[in-house]
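thread: overnight batch results

M.L. [08:02]
morning all. the overnight job finished for the chain we discussed friday. pasting input first so we're all looking at the same thing
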Amino acid sequence: MAKKVKIVSPAAGKVLALSATNDEVFSTGMMGEGFGLEPVSEQVVAPVSGKITMVADSKHAVGITTKEGLEVLVHMGIDTVGLNGEPFDLAIQDGQEVKAGQALATMSLENIKLAGLETTIMVIITNSSDKLEGLDIEEGEVEAGKEVATAYVKAATKKNGKLDYDALADVIIDNVGGQENVNSLVHCITRLRFNLKDEGKAHDDVLKDTDGVIDVLHASGQYQVVIGNEVTNVFDAVMKKMPNLADAPAEDTAPVDDGRNPVSRAFGNLIGVITGSMSPVVGVIAASGIIKGLLALLTLPQLGALLDAKSTSYITVSAMADSAFYFLPVLVGFAAAKRLGGDPIVAAVIGGVLTYPQLVTWGKAFKGMFTIFGINFQFLNYTYSIFPMILAAWMAKKLGDWLKKVLPSYLQMIFNPLITVLVVSTITLVVTGPIIQGVANGIADFINWLVHSSGWVGGLVIGGFYQLLVIFGLHWGVVPLVAQQIAGSGESALNAIISVTMVSQGAAVLAVAIKSKKNDMKSLGIAAAISAFCGVTEPAIYGINLRYRKVFISGLIGSAVGGFVTGLMHGSMFGFTGSLIGFSSFFDLKHPSDLNSFYAFLISSALALVVSFVVTWVWGYSDDMAIGKKVEKKKRPGTV
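M.L. [08:03]
and the structure it wrote out:
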């Protein structure tokens, strides 16, 4: 969709088509598209908002570059360059920001006429061939500062009808304040997550109106550009243009003191660290979950046990699926260290200590370490764990920074990681790991019990409101709990309800795509629906559903119904991946003949899909509705 830029009259007078002006260079369009104006007043104002990028020495011409990249020339009079600036008095200077309608200059119409020259003011877009799809002009009498034309800016992010990643990367880099304003960049399933030096230099509105960008959010001290399913390709294109980011100092990514009260700041930073630690690994966890679910499906006796759970093939593929979970502390440690500004390799090594085979074996048997004052210290199994490693990464960051200050430079390379690994690994194994693991398991088990016990009530409430957490980014606080539940008890009743909320939002946006006669709405809606059915609802929520609030509410109604059924049937999930693509996560490997959870998934998903679709079709959406502004994600406590 082309971006519209409104152009106002630079003076009071009569607007003319270029072809009606008396200058061959301008009238033939050699300089670009635009219009002429026969002025009746001497006050000249800026036709567009932007930055003054050219002021002629003879004062007869001024160049303005808009935030959309249009280069607009205001040329006062024809052949007036030879007057050496005498008829002109400028009110601006090079490099200044101006608003449309702001005074640029005064021009003496009498002096220009006495010189035998014409006073026609030309407004020309000099880079028309590169930037413009079209220009609409209204000819006739007009007052200064009144809208007289609309420029339609080309969608720079499209090439042959497809997303041009390089062009989109250029737009994103320019509008986050340029390369020099970027400290670091990571991405999750749908978003580019920038750490900027100054978020005030970013242009939210431009990015929000850019094809290929769904929304712009400010959260967890990050400047987040929501891309959707193409995020990996866009990330690669951005990184290709900013190779210096690969070597950016890790310290720039650490959470900062935003000046708010300590409790709010701590909460915000905690959510930010959890987000930064989990978002890079969610994709591989989801993929591993699907593989595990498919293995469970192939071993079902109802299907003739197509695959033997003791066969070489099963064990090999199972290892591929289990590796992401088994070595989760390594992955989380690496990601957490990057988020905190520590050394990712040191953190990964500490994660490797927690998953070392012999220690895992001892942990499964609760082998004793030692006893102090009657307290028995035991080894625990930390595979599948998350929270102990996040704290370990934080400790490694703090200890590593302290060692940098106290150790001589010639000892840093070896003794900094040596001391850090030894000290943090010991503290984690002996003290913090058992405490955090115990608390995390207790919370996860309690939530599982609560959801199971509450039945349809819990399903109704969680199903009806869970996607609201996505808007505030608080769902990242739930993700580790779900992983902890599956690691501890092998199932998550909470995740089963969460799964149906994804289906509902996908069904709502699918109804919009099918009902709408607008091509852009259809293409965006179908892509967003597919994404939601694959377990990622943000393109649907931010792209369409929240912009038509009734669509989002329709999805909540459907998910409440689906959650009600899931809770009523006491459905549970045995894998991580949700929505329709996660169907295999509802098969229980331990009890392959028990299909209750799978039936709960089928019935709840079907009802959620139908209810959301019908409510959206009948009540939630029509092409006559005015689209709302792209929703600005509310800041969480403690965020900048």
